[in-house]
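Support request from a user on the community tier.

User writes: "When I paste my structure tokens into the form, the page sometimes reloads and wipes my input. The last time it worked, I copied everything first. Here is what I submitted, just in case something in the input itself triggers the reload:"
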């Protein structure tokens, strides 16, 4: 029997053969955000920048870096237990996986776009409309639903450069639509809204040890995401103003209130949503709060 001492927050006592969770991280722009989230949750990942198998400070987790588009199918097949990838690739591949968390990272829309000189309705009447995209299944479903006579052209990045010479329409991901506009394209429909998700293999979640380990990882990650949304406010208030102040506090459950030492009044502590603070602090001041302090939160376990 031994305990993983490198990361006691998520360590489990195991016996016999070493048990492990296989974790896939997405290569590319999502990688840094996911690694930062894991670090804030207590998982430190190290590598030389070229290795596809970086190390993590938990002996029961094995990491592999893969392209985001390859991840959903590998998780479905069970070669990876948990992973992070865009929901667009999960839907594109109809991957039979379990979604654990929507991280809200890198929100994008999968859209159909055409050159501004074209009319969508007129394009539908055209014979053999050439449509370029990385998303074959999403694209074909969209075209067949709208009654297009089409030729599908698979792309491998830079899809927006194909029209008008090499394609009549594209289906691509976009966050702001700026790149499409710069290339003379106009969005005609939105097929899907996507963001980074944490997914799991369904069979892995049936294994008791793996499920407990994964649940622990999920809890820690969610606590970091929740911590980013809130701040901790601490203030003093007189006994006369206490009840009126407490009534307006948008706390998670109820505020922590304690008697001030050697003075009249109370200390009030509360975790509130970050986006409400600018509006809330002046109101607290009006209700008699003094010595208001604001602190960042690293984790909030609900």
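"...and here is what came back when it finally went through:"
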């Amino acid at each position: 029997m031994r305990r993983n001492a490198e990361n006691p927050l998520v360590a489990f006592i195991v016996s016999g053969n070493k048990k492990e969770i296989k974790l896939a991280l997405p290569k590319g722009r999502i990688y840094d955000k996911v690694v930062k989230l894991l670090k804030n949750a207590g998982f430190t990942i190290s590598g030389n920048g070229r290795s596809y198998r970086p190390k993590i400070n938990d002996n029961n987790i094995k990491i592999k870096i893969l392209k985001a588009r390859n991840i959903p199918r590998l998780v479905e097949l069970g070669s990876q237990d948990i992973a992070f990838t865009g929901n667009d690739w999960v839907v594109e591949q109809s991957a039979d996986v379990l979604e654990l968390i929507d991280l809200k990272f890198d929100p994008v829309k999968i859209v159909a776009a055409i050159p501004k000189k074209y009319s969508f309705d007129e394009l539908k009447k055209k014979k053999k409309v050439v449509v370029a995209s990385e998303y074959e299944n999403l694209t074909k479903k969209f075209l067949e639903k709208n009654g297009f006579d089409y030729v599908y052209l698979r792309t491998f990045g830079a899809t927006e450069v194909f029209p008008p010479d090499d394609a009549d329409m594209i289906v691509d991901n976009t966050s702001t639509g700026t790149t499409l506009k710069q290339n003379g394209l106009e969005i005609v429909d939105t097929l899907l809204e996507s963001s980074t998700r944490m997914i799991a293999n369904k069979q892995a979640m049936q294994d008791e040890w793996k499920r407990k380990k994964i649940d622990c990882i999920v809890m820690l990650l969610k606590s970091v995401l929740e911590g980013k949304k809130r701040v901790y406010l601490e203030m003093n208030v007189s006994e006369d103003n206490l009840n009126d102040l407490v009534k307006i506090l948008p706390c998670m459950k109820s505020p922590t209130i304690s008697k001030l030492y050697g003075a009249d009044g109370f200390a009030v502590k509360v975790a509130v949503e970050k986006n409400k603070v600018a509006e809330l602090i002046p109101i607290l001041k009006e209700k008699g709060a003094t010595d208001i302090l604001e602190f960042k939160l690293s984790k909030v376990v609900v």
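Agent notes: The reload is a front-end session timeout and is unrelated to the input. The CA atoms of residues 168 and 285 lie 60 Å apart. The first helix runs from residue 29 to 40. Escalated to web team.
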